[in-house]
Amino acid sequence: MKGHPEVIDALNSLLTGELSAMDQYFVHAHMYEDWGFNELYTRILHESDDEKLHAAKLIQRILFLEGTPDVASREALNIGKDVQQMLQNDLAYEYHVADHLRKVIALCEEKADYQSREILEVLLDDTESDHMYWLEKQLGLIERIGLQNYLQTKM
């Protein structure tokens, strides 16, 4: 099925974001592992895998629309220097992704590509209710109990 070129371009832009988020989470996960924060390592490696699944869904849709997935492009990564900065950078990225998803969902609606819209709505729900929620909760814990107490719970 030939898709609308503007939708395909927007899906490729989302793909770049998902692959970039996957890379950022991957690096952060291994930094956590190196520092001995095994709970954070496990969770953030899981987030990297989730982003890879999101990318796979976008690739499948782009191919279905007879487009060519751009798997080479990446956005700049924001690798943190400490745990709190890493969590903040990841949350900022998730806010960016959610905003971008909302805009592409609106474009899909405008171009009457309801199936792509539906796929993106699932990705948005996962981004908001899982990724963003968990990161916001971690930063809230740091604020309430202090960084050192938080870090003790993550070893």
From TrEMBL:
GO terms for biological process: intracellular iron ion homeostasis; iron ion transport. GO terms for cellular component: cytosol. Fe cation 1 binds at E18, E51, H54, E128. Residues 1-146 form the Ferritin-like diiron domain. Fe cation 3 binds at H46, D50. It holds the Pfam family Ferritin. It is an enzyme of class 1 (oxidoreductase). Its EC number is 1.16.3.1. GO terms for molecular function: ferric iron binding; ferroxidase activity; heme binding. It comes from the Bacteria. InterPro entries: Bacterioferritin (IPR002024), Ferritin-like (IPR012347), Ferritin-like_diiron (IPR009040), Ferritin-like_SF (IPR009078), Ferritin_DPS_dom (IPR008331). It catalyses: Fe(2+)(in) = Fe(2+)(out); 4 Fe(2+) + O2 + 4 H(+) = 4 Fe(3+) + 2 H2O. Keywords: Heme, Ion transport, Iron, Iron storage, Iron transport, Metal-binding, Oxidoreductase, Transport. Iron-storage protein, whose ferroxidase center binds Fe(2+), oxidizes it using dioxygen to Fe(3+), and participates in the subsequent Fe(3+) oxide mineral core formation within the central cavity of the BFR protein shell. Belongs to the bacterioferritin family. This is Bacterioferritin. It comes from Shewanella livingstonensis.
